[in-house]
Amino acid sequence: MENGAPAWKFRGDEGLFAASDITVRSILYQLMANLDAGDGRAMVPLGHGPAAEDAVVDALRSAKFNCYGPTVGILPARRAIADYLSRDLPYKLSPDDVHLTVGCTQAIEAILTVLARPGANILLPRPGYPYYDARAKHSHLETRSFDLLPDKGWEVDLKGVEDLADESTVAVVINNPGNPYGNVYSYQHLKKVAETARKLGIMVIADEVYGHLAFGDTPFVPMGVFGSIAPVLTLGSISKRWIAPGWRLGWLVTNDPNGFLKDTGAADICSGKIQEIPCITCPKKPGGGMSVMVKLNLSSLEGIKDDMEFCIKLAKEESVIVLPGIGFGMKNWLRVTFAVEPFSLQDGLGRIKAFYERHAKR
Question: The Aminotransferase class I/classII large domain covers which part of the protein (predicted)?
Answer without folding.
Answer: 50-256, 280-341
